[in-house]
Design goal:
Distance between the termini: 22 Å
Number of strands: 10
Largest sheet: 6 strands, mixed
Oligomer: single chain
């Protein structure tokens, strides 16, 4: 599904070059659930952004489902991103004045908007929030807000879900609930990539990638 070959990313700040990734090679098969770990500054978020077409590599090659995405223009990348990838972040990024179902509908505004309301309700039902569809974020708990964000990520039926520190703002009970949802999505054949610095979260995946100074230092299969 995903193949990175000798991928490097360099950020330029004036005359200063800051390498974020250094020659990363990584293959992710369809249906995997893996965690990307590393300390702050290790390059894990940069790697996720490149995998999700949110950033462009400086050198190397990236193929997504057989397509060399490093050759695509911004418009084509945006279409592929909206169709194939769902994003979940630590901050829920919900519109405060919109209901849960309206928040979930947002990706459909930019893509295939048919049956928008129905599809958003189905996505909320998938994460156990059908009864909270018309509540605004301020009326929801942190765990419920993150479930709305997950439903928004699912509404376009993506093949890949990328989650960057998705439980960073949650207590242990809500963390367990969110991880359970990701595991269920993976059982439903969605490829899931979790970016985390928490060992107990990473242990819920089937594979753990560890980064240090922009390089993969270990690739471990979890029993």
């Amino acid at each position: 599904m995903i193949e990175l070959e000798n991928v490097s990313k360099i950020y330029r700040m004036g005359k200063v070059e800051v390498p974020a990734l250094r020659g990363v090679n990584l293959t992710i098969e369809p249906g995997e659930m893996l965690a990307i770990m590393g300390a702050s500054g290790s390059g894990k978020s940069t790697l996720m952004h490149i995998i999700g077409f949110l950033d462009k590599l400086t050198s190397g090659r990236y193929c997504f489902q057989g397509t060399d995405v490093s050759r695509l223009n911004d418009n084509r990348l945006a279409v592929m991103r909206n169709k194939e990838i769902g994003f979940v972040f630590q901050e829920y990024n919900l519109l405060s004045r919109a209901s849960a179902v309206a928040n979930v509908e947002l990706p459909l505004v930019y893509g295939n908007g048919r049956n928008r309301h129905k599809r958003a309700l189905e996505a909320l039902e998938r994460v156990g929030l059908a009864g909270r569809a018309h509540h605004k974020p301020a009326e929801l708990s942190g765990g419920e807000q993150q479930r709305v964000a997950i439903a928004r990520a699912l509404v376009n039926n993506p093949t890949l879900v990328l989650a960057d520190e998705p439980t960073g703002n949650l207590d242990s009970a809500n963390t367990a609930e969110i991880i359970s949802i990701f595991r269920q999505l993976n059982q439903d054949s969605i490829t899931v990539v979790l970016v985390t610095h928490e060992t107990d979260i990473a242990a819920q995946a089937r594979r753990i990638i560890r980064l240090l100074d922009g390089q993969i230092i270990s690739d471990e299969r979890v029993g």
